[in-house]
Write a structure and sequence with these properties.
Chains A, B, C: Belongs to the Thz kinase family. Chains A, B, C: Catalyzes the phosphorylation of the hydroxyl group of 4-methyl-5-beta-hydroxyethylthiazole (THZ). Chains A, B, C: Its cofactor is Mg(2+). The structure is a homotrimer. Chain A is α/β, with parallel strands linked by helices. Chain A has a single domain, classed as 3-Layer(aba) Sandwich (UDP-N-acetylmuramoyl-L-alanine:D-glutamate ligase), CATH 3.40.1190. Chain A contains eleven helices and nine strands. In chain A, a hairpin with a 3-residue loop joins β6 and β7. In chain A, α2 crosses α8 and α9 packs across α10.
Chain lengths: ~260, ~260, ~260
Amino acid sequence: MIEKVREKRPLIYHITNTVVTNFTANGLLAMGASPVMADAEEEAAEMAAAADALVLNIGTLHPSQVKAMFVAGRAANKKGIPIVLDPVGAGATSYRTETARQLLKELNISLLRGNVGEIKALIGSDGNIQGVDAIQTEVDEMEAVAKEAASLFSVPVVVSGAVDIVTDEKDLYRVANGDELLIRITGSGCLLSGVIASFLTVNDSRTEAAADALTYYGVAAEKAAMKGEQPGSFQVAFLDALYEVGKEEIQKMAKQEKMTLS
Amino acid sequence: MIEKVREKRPLIYHITNTVVTNFTANGLLAMGASPVMADAEEEAAEMAAAADALVLNIGTLHPSQVKAMFVAGRAANKKGIPIVLDPVGAGATSYRTETARQLLKELNISLLRGNVGEIKALIGSDGNIQGVDAIQTEVDEMEAVAKEAASLFSVPVVVSGAVDIVTDEKDLYRVANGDELLIRITGSGCLLSGVIASFLTVNDSRTEAAADALTYYGVAAEKAAMKGEQPGSFQVAFLDALYEVGKEEIQKMAKQEKMTLS
Amino acid sequence: MIEKVREKRPLIYHITNTVVTNFTANGLLAMGASPVMADAEEEAAEMAAAADALVLNIGTLHPSQVKAMFVAGRAANKKGIPIVLDPVGAGATSYRTETARQLLKELNISLLRGNVGEIKALIGSDGNIQGVDAIQTEVDEMEAVAKEAASLFSVPVVVSGAVDIVTDEKDLYRVANGDELLIRITGSGCLLSGVIASFLTVNDSRTEAAADALTYYGVAAEKAAMKGEQPGSFQVAFLDALYEVGKEEIQKMAKQEKMTLS
């Protein structure tokens, strides 16, 4: 599917945090998408109307940015383009948790992506997860959290971790590609949300699009880790790999598993 | 002229977008200039009064930043230091287009730099370009747009593209240096505006200063592309090249052409 | 002491400038700390209450950020976690100088770090430094300024330069590690403040913690300069070195000198 993304060169509008703007833009350019960032309420509707997808990332929230998120989100919903919500730091402060919940409630979000702690914070139950007795491993917990969030918010959910989980209650994907150096560079999750948004623009199945985005991203990380074994050189090699990785490499290296939930 | 820039080490005050602050600062430091960024109305006048040039970049506008731009711009005009305007995304939203036009109207801008779409948006005529019948190539169009903008706003204009155009209605330069990987890294245009601003501080001929800045920048990109063939490694090599490239290399590799318009 | 930092993985909350957020976060992740950035008054108290240390950096101030700094600072003081103040650009504008002085006055700052010009601006005396007759070298001046600031503000002070000075009026350290390429990359001082904050979380002696942080940082820079001799490649190698440098290398390469003041 990476070929379709590169052919379409989708315009991905980000309202995101100030830590990752540069890396996100460079990652999307390297992949072959077209990123744009804008924070102001004054232009949020017009920008969303011109875009192919919208990413809302709450990593450095402030009130005027929240206003812009709602304006952009409503315009995106009106146009019918996908919205990815990245609830960075949900659970760390109530401002983040509440803002993320409000975005989920008032906008039609297409996909929610976070780590297990962030998604649990949005669910709001510290352990009151369905099937909790069956949870024996970290992956079990991630899957339970992903299913619970997908059900509660009626939205496909990606939970990122050593293995990435995608589910919409009907299907569940496990993607085992990636490298642990990803957690040593800032913004690797934020950029991933932009990559998923890009894949959503070329595939109507949101879970399949997300699983394919995760596989592409993880394969690029594995390729990068062969060249750069420390965070600085890994980051450079990762941008190179996002540019280079193609269909054949993905097919050869993919560790993607799909299950159908009853 | 790069030697003069490095000797002077000009202080370039940027009010710019949050995506490119880091890359712009690193690029100017690598070249040998001294960048400073500040957004607040509270300090814009003092900062401009201390600077050797001012760059206004509208890439992530918001109302308080626009106020700071006008305060800084007036102080820069009062002091007589050059102002470069980079109308990032003009045409994408009316907020950007209108803000850029207002800055052009109310401040004494020394040079306007953008891509052909941005400059066309500021002109406001979708094709009503003088000499439109003679436009057969992309470069023809860029030159027509640059001349039209230079005339309309009474300011030297740089239109960036595969070939860069500089004109002030009297002279026109074509600079063919550069590498297409520049469009795969974010902020390459924004940094270029800072480089041009630096060259303006050591040469009273604004078109010549801009043409020399473009040549230096393009030669550095060509040198970088020999070492880094993907976006991540290219960006690293480009910062290295901005630091290393000197007079001799520029003279040897320059593809600069000057024409005198009637 | 780097081992203790890596074991603790302290959460360092930054309210910092938009130029260096990405590099600071990447540097702290590479070292083994856990950075978080947040600007909004709405969440500053909660974030500070969750953190192990707070860094206040005035590099791109605006009024709402200043409010967040005071809220975060009071919460940090209440919790008893260290606060490092980095007065970027103090002296360049009165807004910066006054804000830094107010932070020093109204909060219980644990350590002040800046270059000699910034610290002099906070003292407010252009040369009225105690023992001024004895000042014959740049290092003499740095030491006099550091002592004066430590006395005036009753806080340990780090003055960064070719040699770094740490003093609290009782002890004085000189750290001669480092590389001049550090001044060719933006944010090297800002990241250093985050590194010092991290070391403060594992050592009750603030001057010793700062001296050890400076030594670790300088050794990493020296190691990086062997691999990357230009700013772009140096920055990559520096992040790698922050990740790799360990106790043995530090002990072998350290140029740290301690003196007891009367």
